[in-house]
Amino acid sequence: MADEICPCGGARGFEACCGRFLADGGEAGTPEELMRSRYSAFVRGELGYLLSTHHPSTRSPQLVSGLEETLRTARWIGLRVVAWGMEKGREDRGWVEFVAFQAGPGFDQIHERSRFFRADGKWQYVDGTHLPDVTLDRNGPCVCGSGRKWKKCHGGWPGA
Known about the structure:
four-stranded antiparallel β-sheet, globular
C-alpha cells in the first residue's frame, strides 16, 4: 500500500513526514517541522498532539475549547511555508511564517508568523502574530494542490 500524501505538502509521504511525529511521538528537529506537523494534526483532527505541542504557559481551558471548535468546523486544504528561522543568537527560539488555507463554506486563510521555544530538546508552539492575507494569482495553481487554476477551483467561490 502506497504511503498517503502528507497534508503539510512535504515531498515525502505522511508516514515519513508528519506521521512520524503524530503517531510515533518523534520530536521535531526544527520549528518548521513542528509547524508542519501541527498543520497535519489540524487536518487529521489530532487534538492530543496539538495540546502536547503547545507551550505549557499558553495552555488553558479556552485553548482546548478553541481547538475543539476549529477541529469541528475547519476544512484545511493547503499550506505554504513562506520562511522560517531562528532568533539571532538563540538556539532555543525560532519562528515560522506560513499561510494555511481553509474552505467550506467559503474560503479563508491564516497568514501568521508563529513563535516556537525549545525546552529539554522539544520544540513547542508559543503564539503567533497574524499578518495580512496573501493575494492569490487567479491564473496560478490552486492552493489545494489539485493542479487546476485558482480561479477554476477554490478561487471560484463567492467571496473568495
